[in-house]
Amino acid sequence: VAAPVLLPGLGTAPHWQVVVARVEWEGEAPPAPGGPVAQSLLEEVLVDPEAGGPEPSDRIAVAHTGEEAVALVPLPAPADGAAAAPAGGTATGTASGARGDTGGDTAAGSGGAERAYGFEAGLHADALLAAVREPLFRGLDGDGRLTLGVSATVQSAEGLRGALEEARHARRVAAARPGRVCAAGHQELASHVLLLPFVPDDVRRAFTARLLDPLHDYDRRHRAELIPTLEAFLDCDGSWTRCAARLHLHVNTLRYRVGRIEQLTGRDLARLEDKVDFFLALRMS
């Protein structure tokens, strides 16, 4: 797949992103093989001018391997005056505006590349999804589902293997979300967002039940709004004054509710470990 575009003749060190797509249908008998359909849809996505990626180019290579389609997308040359990384090398750092980055060769070579291009130059999962969700939703069969994963930018052929794995991991994150057209980017792979979809269902249920069921039961009996209070308290980073203002409560009322949460669960919301446990339980519930 990659051989025709490894040396695109741009006159600069080559930079690429990898995009992985997969189409799945509910039911035992899919109307068509997933790989070719995913390839066709991915080709349409990548040439859509609204997708927010590089200009359409005949250097983009898309192929399917089994049930998934893989695209190798060369990026345009850096703008004049941009500090490009050495050819074939890697740059370190995190691109401005990214929510995070992954470890490994792919991430190590991504930050400098995205700075050199200007952060907006590459493909971004959220912009791509916003541009193509509605037309793809209408174009899929009634029970079809498309998921996409987008890698970070890599600056050498040696980084392509890591970029492919990164895009595949991102697609799995997207697949764990509700909706018929979903996408995820490399920034999400350094977040708890990556881990939560792969927690086994029985572990998820046991963990959330142990922490949250006592609060749900108490709320049903007393309309105490302990769950909304807990969510707001964590969202305000444990700030009593900010949380009380958000909930339109007196600080003493907030302290009473938090104390009741701690009493019912046996946890201490002054401890970081317990805050993290509650945060994860709420995200998995």
Automatic annotation (TrEMBL):
PANTHER family: CARBOHYDRATE DIACID REGULATOR, CONSERVED PROTEIN. Residues 80-109 are annotated as: Disordered. Gene3D superfamilies: PucR C-terminal helix-turn-helix domain. Pfam families: HTH_30. It comes from the Bacteria. Signal peptide: none annotated. Residues 226-283 form the PucR C-terminal helix-turn-helix domain. Residues 80-108 have a biased composition (Low complexity). This is Regulatory protein.
